[in-house]
Structure formats: structure tokens, C-alpha cells
Amino acid sequence: MTIPPHEPSRRKSRFAGLRASFLTGLVVIAPIGLTIWLMWTVAGWVDSWVLPLIPAQYRPEHYIGINLRGIGVLIFLIFTVIVGWLAKGLIGRSLIRWGEHLVDRMPVVRSVYNGLKQIAETVFSTSDEAKFDRACVVEYPRPGLKAIAFVSSRAKGEVAGQGTAEDPLISVFLPTTPNPTSGFLLFVPESQITYLEMSVEDAAKLIISAGLVYPSPKPAKLAAGKVQENKAARSTEAR
């Protein structure tokens, strides 16, 4: 008696193959699609702010007949470069000082402008005093629990007085998951901060993904290998 082939298992294997192919395609398409969508959305948002400031007769669609998304971004970049170039000159610095002197006479506007200016100078500063390019681990919200944060700068003024010269306070920004733009400002003694080898980008991916995307462990392995080599060399010299 001939036993008929087992059709359900074959159908199940085919379905499993289709499911695996679909998931693989989704992994490939999702990042590309989300990246394109995000760039398209940001370009449209910038265009909606920049293009209304340009007279209609000078807009690109007046000459080519269609509205090209991204023209506002290009205009904004060119305008920003020109303003930065002028601001570095003598006339530009004089105009900036005159404008800031005028703003200082406005009570509410003065507070908002000075606060935003200080934040912009701190974030975009290239000096060694103002940094935001290092990830670390601190104990939060209680001892024993670890959280990833970003090093901002060394505390100054009255806040710095709460620390000691041997163990100064460091201001760190502890972002929330999955939105890293919100978080908490913490002043932590430097002895309680553990600096990480991973970059700020890798730490941000780890926070946004809620711990699903970890950076490559190769740097840590290399660092551990170097430590072992140094220990071996020291033991050899001691012998």
C-alpha cells in the first residue's frame, strides 16, 4: 500500500518560506521608506517656512511651472552661509552688536533671545569647554540602576560650588525613550560617571530603539585585548 505524500507539511514549509521572505523584505524596505519619508517631510516643512517669504515672481515654480520640494531647503542653506560669512566681517559684527543692543531694551524679548543665543552657542560651539559629544552611564533614578546620558559640560557658577575641586560636578543630559529630545538635566560628580567608548550616534540608537539596537562590541573587545596585553607585558617585565 502506497502512503500519499504529506501535503500539510509541504504547504506549511512554503508558507514559512513566504513569511521569511516577507519579513526580510520588510527589514530592507522599512528603513529606506522611513528615511525617504522623513527627508520628504522635513523638506516640505522647511519649504512651508521659507518659500512664503520669497515674492511669487521670484519663486522657482514661476519659471518652471512646478513646485519642486527641497528648493526652500537649498535657499535656507545658501542664506545661512551668506549670513555667517557676513557676520564674520567688521560690518556684520557691528550690525549684530547694534541689533543686540536694541534687543536688550526689550524686557521679554531680551530674556528669550539671550537664552536661545546661549543654547545655540553651547550646542554649536567647537571649543573644548562646551562639549556634547560623549556618552556615559550614571546611576538613575536610584543607586543600582544604570542609565545612558550625554556629557554636556563642567558645571559653572553657583552650581559648581556644590561640588569639590577633587570631584567636580559634570552636567549631563539624560534623554528619555523613545523621544531623545526630552529628558532631564543632571549634575553628577565626575567620580560617579562612567564614560563609554560608543559614539553619541550609537548611544542615541540604543535609546531610541529601547535597547534593541546595540553598537558593535568590537571596540570593547579591542580595548579589553589591549588591557590584557598591557597586563601580560607588565607581568613579563616584573619577572
Describe the structure.
This protein is of the alpha+beta class and 239 residues long. 54% of the residues lie in helices and 13% in strands. The protein has helices at 7-50, 61-64, 71-87, 90-103, 107-123, 157-160, 200-208, 218-238, and strands spanning 135-139, 146-154, 169-175, 183-189, 194-195. The longest helix is centred in the N-terminal third of the chain and has 44 residues, at 7-50. The protein is flat and about 80 Å long. 6% of the residues are buried.
Q: How are the SSEs placed, and which strands pair?
A:
Elements: H1 7-50, H2 61-64, H3 71-87, H4 90-103, H5 107-123, E1 135-139, E2 146-154, H6 157-160, E3 169-175, E4 183-189, E5 194-195, H7 200-208, H8 218-238
Antiparallel strand pairs: 1-2, 1-5, 2-3, 3-4
Helix pairs in contact: 1-3
Oligomer state of the chains in this structure: single chain
Uncertain stretches = 219-227, 233-239
State the end-to-end distance: 80 Å
How would you state the average pLDDT, rounded?
80
Give the SSE order as H and E letters.
HHHHHEEHEEEHH
How many E-type strands?
A: 5
The number of helical segments is 8
For the largest beta sheet, what order do the strands appear in spatially?
4-3-2-1-5
| Structural class determined from secondary elements | alpha+beta
Percentage of β-strand residues: 5-15%
Rounded to an integer, what's the Rg over CA atoms? 28 Å
Largest sheet: 5 strands, antiparallel
- Approximate shape: flat
Helix content: 40-55%
